[in-house]
Amino acid sequence: MSIEIQHVTKIFGDFAALKDVSLTVPAGELVALLGPSGSGKTTLLRIIAGLEVPDQGTVLFDSQDATARSARDRRVGFVFQHYALFRHMTVFENVAFGLRVKPRHERPAAAEIATRVRELLTLVQLERLAERYPSQLSGGQRQRVALARALAVQPKILLLDEPFGALDAKVRQELRRWLRRLHDEIGITSVFVTHDQDEALEVADRVVILHEGCVEQEGSPEQVYEHPATPFVYRFLGNVNLFHGRVEGSQVHLGEFSMEAPAGMGQAATPAVAYARPHLLDIDHQPPSGRPHFQATIAHINAAGAVVKIELTTGSGAIVNVEMPHERYRHLKLRKGIHVFVSVKDMKLFTQAHSTLGGGI
Amino acid sequence: MSAIRGRRHRVIPGFGLTLGVTLLYLSLIVLIPLSATFLKASTAGWSACWHTVTEPRALASYRLSFGAAFIGAAVNAIMGLVVAWVLVRYQFPGRRIIDALVDLPFALPTAVAGITLTTVLSVHGWIGRYLEPLGITAAFSPLGVVIALIFIGLPFVVRTVQPVLQALDPELEEAAASLGAGRWQTFARVIIPELWPALLTGFALAFARAIGEYGSVVFISGNMPMRTEITPLLIITKLEQYDYAGATAIGVFMLLVSFALLLVINLLQWWSGKRHA
Predict the structure, then answer these.
(1) How far, CA to CA in Å, does B161 sit from each of A114, B94, B167, B168, B207?
(2) Among the partner residues B174, B181, B193, nearest to A101 by beta-carbon distance
(3) Residue A206's closest CA among A220, A195, A196, A189?
């Protein structure tokens, strides 16, 4: 089932959680709503579920207006961040709940309910724990019970609110891959909310980035990562080095260094911000020719991990982060405290803090 | 060495000390006075005791005392839940005042409550005069006893259910709704089971309080033997007749029944609490 959000606005008191948000989720896709806390992502999810009523705008399921339908009638599976399992019911009863509360004429027979629940518990790999109570389960197990419970009523849409937020890093990794596989298996239209960009980029077909109640950008994980539309998206998706400066004539002055302004930039003097990911900066002992560069001192080296992370301080006291492969690190024989040249392989320039006007170099 | 290792480490130690204090305290405050009643009752001899305890007037008083206490506590369990629900779930002007009103039955001297209720419910009272034409006699009848016991028991249920309701995660209801449950199904299958232990506690407290209640009841009941005489009053009557052994015999009997009932309620609670563990 496809979901269409049209011009949805939601205001709590004097706080606008969502401002005229429109969004389409095609049937069968796994979409991530990504944003910092307070960006409105959970509110949007709750509006899709019918747990919150929008002040303006409409929600369409398969092109049919569902705005006035209650949560009960929307037949949407919802997985809560803190699971919201029924403590007084066993795992089995929790999963069976949605089937047992169906109106008499729709309700499956007891044997059929038992079969369905067993199937779902097998799907979430919890068949052995059917008789346990939620308090006897680990966080990851509870999350899977919550998922099985939501799937029991065969919803057309699955919504997950920070599904892995309360779990530790390792379980999180496993569960998010597992969710991806599960989605590929059952092919249900799914939307999940997260504030973790890695999670969104790894799991989702499409990522919608929300900021202060507005959709900042949407697209495939690759699109949003490689071509951030706004400085906010750039900052939010991964670590980034920030250089403030101005465009003057054909030159951009960015504090530590200057470079040619990309074609199409305004000629008048305008403030500019440049963003460079740590792996798009390079370090050398000699000033490299042909690339914008500046001098800096190595302040800290973290060589534990897939890449070496180096923190440097510039002459003006700004901090710059660089990532490089281990081979290059060993080749350069870098040490803490030495002076080096940092050069820019690629960066993205925005001429106004929030404009989408930008260009690479 | 091994003895120390074998023990579980606790941040605040002192099991021995606290258990000792608990036992001593309970002995001084509860057990010693109670065993004195047992001793006193036994001075009359077994058959005399049994005779006092089972005489028709006493039996009628048990029926009234336990029956009215049970009905009162049951009504309180339901209405107390409603009051707690309104206080927790809704914001409205005067909520704090209503919240404070709930505790009044605790603070009011029970005799004052009894006299007030009698005045209001008697044939010429504010409420009694409208009940009379309907054939309902509220004052000086078993109904009056029940009303007095409802009055004094209300805060127990409200105050035990309120915090639990407050802590109840609204997501549970949302989860139930998104799974297709109607309002009534959500209430009966999700909310009530969560509140059950607190409701039982409130019921037990209101019930226990009502069994022992004296002050508010004696004014409204009319104290007619066989009809509106509660057991505590029967005990007082016996005391006034210098029948100390008889009074304590009935007291002991009441004590045993109350203890048995509270034990059953505690077991119920343990059983329902065990499932949450």
Answers:
(1) 34, 20, 10, 11, 15
(2) B181
(3) A220
Q: How confident is the model at residue B74 (pLDDT cuts 50, 70, 90)?
A: very high
Low-confidence stretches of chain A (pLDDT < 70) are: 262-269, 352-361
**Which residues of chain B does A74 touch, with a Cβ-Cβ cutoff of 8 Å?**
178
Residue B214 backbone phi and psi in degrees, to 5 = -130, -60
Question: By the CB < 8 Å criterion, does A108 face chain B?
Answer: no
Who's near B247: CB < 8 A, 6+ residues apart?
A: B235, B236, B238, B239
Task: Determine contact, residues B146/B138, Cβ cutoff 8 Å.
Answer: no
Of A51, A89, A101, Cβ closest to residue B174 = A51
Tell me the whole-structure pTM to 2 decimals.
0.78
Between B169, B179, B277, which is nearest A101 by CB? Answer: B179
Q: What is the ipTM for the molecules in this complex?
A: 0.79
Return all residues near B229 (Cβ < 8 A) that are at least 6 apart: B57, B60, B61, B64, B221, B223
| φ/ψ of residue A222, rounded to 5 | -65, -50
Q: Which residues of B touch A97 (CB under 8 A)?
A: 176, 179, 181, 189
Whose structure tokens read 């799907």?
A: A123
pLDDT tens string A217-226: 999 999 998 8
DSSP string, A1-70: --EEEEEEEEEETTEEEEEEEEEEE-TT-EEEEE--TTSSHHHHHHHHHTSS--SEEEEEETTEE-TTS-
Chain B residues close to A50, C-beta within 8 Å: 178
**A72 contacts B182? CB cut-off 8 A:** yes
For chain B, the maximum distance between any two Cα atoms, rounded to a whole number of angstroms, is 82
| Separation between Cα atoms, residue B204 and residue B210, nearest integer Å | 10
Q: How many CB atoms lie within 10 A of CB B14?
A: 10
Nearest chain B residue (CA) to A93: B189
Taking the CA of residue A216 and the nearest CA in chain B, the distance in Å comes to 29
Question: Model confidence over A116-139: pLDDT tens digits?
Answer: 999 999 988 898 999 999 999 998
Show the tokens assigned to A247. 């465009």
DSSP letter assigned to residue B190: I
Instruction: Show the tokens assigned to B272.
Output: 């329902």
The answer to whether A51 faces chain B, any CB pair under 8 Å, is yes
End-to-end CA distance of chain A: 42
Tokens encoding A344:
């820019």
Residue of A49 and B133 predicted with greater confidence: A49
- Whose structure tokens read 């890093």? A169
